[in-house]
Specification:
Elements (H helix, E strand, L loop, with lengths): L3 E6 L15 H16 L4 H8 L1 E2 L2 E8 L8 E11 L3 E10 L4 E11 L1 E2 L10 H8 L5
Antiparallel strand pairs: 1-4, 2-7, 3-6, 4-5, 5-6
Length: about 140
């Protein structure tokens, strides 16, 4: 299956005094794309916590910046699953500026399944792992 894709426009609030998206907002964009992926898979952070007693804290994040995004640019983010382990998932993101076709950034987030009450790592629920496998990089 191809990577999941979502689009949105850069908001004014995400830019700095130079009119360029602040570097920290790319991680917000990654998480926004992950949230949209989950929505299409018919679950979200809340439902995972309620149904399985599992939260998905981030344990690692990385981003390489390639070209700037500016206010009102149309952004497309591709999300794929680079690694799916028993207790962790590594999402890979590509941020593309659709105005000029340039890759703006790429990076990843690693999330670990954890018991919401104990905070200890647990196995990713199979129903979720099965849905995420559809987005594994091949």
């Amino acid at each position: 299956m191809p990577p999941f894709k979502t689009r949105f426009r850069v908001s004014w609030v995400d830019t700095d005094a130079a009119g360029i998206v602040h570097f920290s907002n790319y991680f917000k964009y990654f998480e926004k794309a992950e949230e949209e992926l989950y929505r299409t898979l018919k679950f979200n952070f809340e439902s995972v916590a309620e149904k399985y007693g599992v939260i998905l804290p981030r344990v690692e994040a990385w981003c390489r910046y390639k070209s700037p995004l500016r206010f009102n640019d149309l952004v497309e983010i591709e999300v794929s699953v680079r690694e799916l382990k028993e207790k962790a998932v590594k999402y890979w993101f590509k941020v593309c500026n659709k105005r000029n076709g340039q890759l703006a950034a790429e990076g990843y987030i690693v999330a670990v399944a954890a018991d919401k009450n104990l905070g200890k790592a647990v196995k990713i629920p199979e129903e979720i792992a099965e849905k995420l496998r559809a987005y594994m990089e091949t």
